[in-house]
Design brief:
alpha/beta, globular, 10-stranded mixed beta sheet, 3-stranded antiparallel beta sheet
Length: 413
């Protein structure tokens, strides 16, 4: 299962394109799906290690200290907080976790000392009009279990302490001034988007009832879907995480009281009971799920889906029919959730993954749009209750504003 880790670490060797096959920037641009990308000019922010974490056993996979990057707010935003949970896949067995602990996704010894804040994390009003002057924090992800694990594997030198990392990070930020926040937003993309859903109500519980607290989950809707061979690859994978890392004890009781623990690692089963206002930002054709859940190599031994997986334009009619079935599942998963007035959705029909932390997709002149709203505008309208916050796209290929991801080559898959 190390390929799941590899894809998360290497889902940067991609080429972006929009409006069909036309390049959306000057020529072809290789970019990464993490926050250090997307053409933004935001500040570089230093890593802070949480010194109090070791005494509480809140450590990364390799036993090193967890950390975060904090950029202080100013002016009208000095008392508002945006907390972003970093994404980056998972590890579901000892082998993949041992592999992971030698990377920035499992050890602070390998983390960047500075990260550039772009997209929703940017400190520039022209790049991030609603949240640019808030206190903005990126909590680094080094546990491999979406901040839910609570266990260890002594023989392999592995620590599964995601839930403790979540708790010490929140405690440290509260001491840094978040305790008196007037407004707060928890966000994250990919595995961080799933983390956001799993921890949303916990985050709400940190603050008084008069504090405006909401959650934004970007590309976090990993579905319990059937793959092209009729198996549930994602369920098997999530089951491994929950069993290995002891995540069940940390998952929302509103879900585990009615379903098995593995089911409650799937955001779609937690959504119906979230009490805190939440915004779901997702593509209907999530490329990560296409690569590793819907058409993994184990389900496609003859490589019939390889070209489609690398470039959406190469998908044949049968493959598109299968992917449209996945889109229907995505829309169905949020149907009841979106009926609540407090929640928001922006589901576009793009072949992409993570759109809030990249500048080009969050807020730029040619960003994806639905209802003539860029993602930043839709999220801002929802958070500040300025207008409609429910946007669902028609099926591919009707949307000409997408920034589709096209994989270059395939050597990293």
């Amino acid at each position: 299962m190390a390929s799941w880790v590899l894809l998360a670490l290497l889902l940067g060797s991609v080429v972006g394109a929009a409006r069909g096959s036309e390049p959306w920037s000057n020529g072809t641009q290789v970019y990464s799906t993490n926050a250090n990308s997307g053409g933004g000019n935001g500040a570089f922010v230093a890593l802070t290690l949480i010194q109090s974490a070791a005494a509480r056993g809140a450590v990364c996979l390799d036993g090193s200290l967890p950390g975060y990057h904090l950029h202080r707010g100013s002016g009208s935003g000095s008392n508002n907080w945006l907390v972003n949970l970093e994404g980056g896949g998972w590890c579901n067995d000892v082998r993949s976790c041992v592999f992971r602990k030698s990377s920035r996704r499992g050890s602070s010894n390998h983390m960047e000392k500075q990260l550039q804040f772009t997209g929703i994390m940017s400190n520039r009003p022209e790049e991030n009009p609603d949240f640019y002057n808030w206190n903005r924090v990126k909590v680094r992800y080094c546990d491999g279990g979406s901040f839910t694990g609570d266990g260890a594997d002594a023989a392999s030198g592995l620590y599964f302490r995601g839930q403790r990392i979540w708790q010490v990070a929140m405690d440290d930020l509260m001491a840094q001034g978040m305790r008196s926040a007037s407004q707060a937003l928890l966000s994250g993309c990919s595995a961080g988007g799933a983390s956001t859903i799993l921890h949303c109500d916990e985050f709400r519980g940190l603050f008084p009832s008069n504090t405006r607290v909401k959650c934004l989950a970007d590309a976090g809707m990993f579905l319990d879907a059937v793959d092209i061979a009729g198996r549930r690859q994602m369920r098997d994978f999530f089951n491994g995480i929950v069993r290995l890392q002891g995540s069940g004890r940390s998952l929302p009781r509103s879900c585990t009281s009615r379903m098995d623990k593995t089911s409650c690692f799937f955001p779609q089963n937690v959504l119906p009971n979230i009490q805190t206002p939440t915004f779901i930002l997702n593509t209907a054709y999530d490329v990560w799920q296409l690569q590793e859940s819907l058409a993994p190599k184990t389900a496609d031994p003859h490589g019939l889906w390889q070209r489609c997986k690398q470039n959406y334009a190469s998908c044949n009619s049968n493959q598109l029919q299968f992917l449209n079935g996945f889109r229907d599942e995505m829309l169905d998963a949020v149907k009841g959730f979106s009926g609540s007035g407090q929640n928001g959705v922006f589901i576009n029909s793009c072949f992409a993954h993570c759109q809030s932390e990249r500048q080009d997709t969050w807020y730029s002149s040619n960003s994806p749009r639905l209802g003539n709203k860029r993602i930043a505008e839709a999220v801002g309208d929802w958070y500040f209750e300025r207008g409609n916050a429910k946007f669902t796209d028609c099926a591919y290929p009707c949307d000409g504003t997408c920034h589709h991801i096209v994989f270059r080559g395939g050597s990293h898959l």
